TrEMBL record:
Signal peptide: none
Positions of the Aminotransferase class I/classII large domain: 6-377
CDD domains: AAT_like
The keyword ATP-binding is assigned to this record: no
Organism: Callorhinchus milii
Molecular function per GO: cysteine-S-conjugate beta-lyase activity; kynurenine-glyoxylate transaminase activity; kynurenine-oxoglutarate transaminase activity; pyridoxal phosphate binding
Annotated protein name in UniProt: Kynurenine--oxoglutarate transaminase 3
Record keywords: Aminotransferase, Pyridoxal phosphate, Transferase
Enzyme nomenclature, EC number: 2.6.1.63, 2.6.1.7, 4.4.1.13
């Protein structure tokens, strides 16, 4: 029904604004380069300039020396890095702990590898007198500890989280890390929104916690980092003994990622490393811009009588739509979103798609909006929300 209707699209997570000029220019330079090799195959496990800068950049962020050849793998978007992890590390009957709400492919990728997803939902704690934030959704430590069994192979962490926008605190990460170490379990840490953290919150990388480097694969996305999701450049960073298995999957499925796109991301990261933490950094200006857009969308949603759950990070804001609720139905969020698209011309995503079958019904009163959009798009959404009220 999406294509039949002229809709303001706050559904899928992609920016409708342009990537920064310096990475676009780097891409064009690569295509027009005198070095004809820029338009040919490069190293299969990652274009040398890109793996070198990733090793340097993440070496700094993770506080350790990273070997560009053994400990970095470039993939077709973060998505392929996730796929390689599941195919390489999860065997038949292995249990994989997934924190809900979760980026939807984790469940299917775990199952495709023969694994059994084990779900644990973040629980919203009661809040009164102020706006709820993603920090108010917490894991129950005892429940989490109970999910670990002899068959647990990996925990999947998404920090900042899609769709909720939760940025896990150091204490929460320590809890997860201690359990991983105790039970000798791997951690897949999907950190594609690593630069999009708001209100001065700290983004802690779980790979930096004691005992975690050797069991963590950290996944990132050039698309999310430089607002160029169509370029599909991603990476996995982790210890050699784990990454070698991901490399085998990559080599025998995708083999190689687009050279010029990798060159552009390499040049972008090189520039960003030079100005890390300085006002001219894109990793400073982008989250500032997005925080402003987040606040603007949250205000429009609240004015329409819905309740925003203010995200601490990422591209998305989920809204509690209980106030609009009608008679009981199959899944309320799904019904509401279909009606919004066809009748109001505004697209969002029902949050139940980010839950397992066993927990969908409990969380059917939330819908997800993407705020990584031009101000003109947010104005159109605001107008629809005003009329809706
Ligand atoms: N992980 C999460 C949490 C995402 O939201 C997305 C969607 N962009 C991806 C991974 C995939 O990223 P990419 O576009 O780099 O493949
Ligand atoms: N991550 C984006 C979203 O959640 C894009 C979806 C995707 O890559 N499958 O909307």
């Amino acid at each position: 029904c999406f294509l039949q209707h002229q809709v303001v699209n706050l559904g899928q997570g992609f920016p409708d604004f342009s990537p920064p000029q310096f990475v676009k220019e780097a891409f064009i330079r690569a295509l027009n380069s005198e070095n004809s090799l820029m338009n040919q195959y490069t190293r299969g496990f990652g274009h040398p300039p890109l793996v070198n800068i990733l090793a340097l950049f993440f070496g700094k962020l993770l506080g350790r020396d990273i070997n560009a050849l053994d400990e970095v793998l470039v993939t077709v978007g973060a998505y392929e890095a996730l796929f390689c992890f599941f195919q390489a590390m999860v065997d038949d009957g292995d249990e994989v702990i997934i924190i809900e709400p979760f980026f939807d492919c984790y469940e299917m990728m775990a199952q495709m590898a023969g694994g059994r997803p084990v779900f644990i939902p973040l629980q919203p704690k009661p809040v009164s007198g102020r706006m709820v934030t993603s920090a108010d959704w917490e894991l129950d430590p005892a429940e989490l500890a109970n999910k670990f069994t002899k068959r647990t192979k990996a925990v999947i962490l998404n920090n900042p989280n899609n769709p909720l926008g939760k940025v896990f605190t150091r204490k929460e990460l320590e809890l997860i890390a201690d359990l991983c170490v105790k039970h000798d379990v791997l951690c897949l840490s999907d950190e594609v929104y690593e630069w999009l953290v708001y209100d001065g919150k700290e983004h802690v990388r779980i790979a930096t916690l004691p005992g975690m480097w050797e069991r963590t694969v950290t996944v990132g996305s050039g698309g999310k980092t430089f607002s160029a999701t169509g370029w599909k450049v991603g990476w996995a960073i982790g210890p050699k003994q784990v990454l070698r298995h991901l490399r085998t999957v990559h080599q025998n499925t995708v083999f190689h990622c687009a050279t010029a796109a990798q060159q552009a991301v390499a040049e972008g990261l090189t520039k960003e490393l030079e100005c890390l933490g300085k006002p001219e950094s894109y990793f400073i200006s982008l989250p500032q811009e997005l925080q402003r857009k987040r606040d603007r969308l949250a205000a429009s949603i609240n004015a329409a009588g819905l309740k925003s759950i203010l995200p601490e990070g990422g591209y998305f804001l989920i809204a509690d739509v209980t106030a609009t609720s009608e008679l009981p139905c199959e899944l309320y969020d799904d019904k509401l979103v279909k009606r919004m698209i066809t009748e109001q011309g505004l697209a969002a995503i029902p949050v139940s798609v980010f839950y397992s079958a066993e927990h969908k019904k409990e969380f059917e009163n939330y819908i997800r909006f993407c705020f990584a959009k031009e101000d003109s798009t947010l104005s159109k959404a605001e107008k629809i929300l005003q009329e809706w009220k």
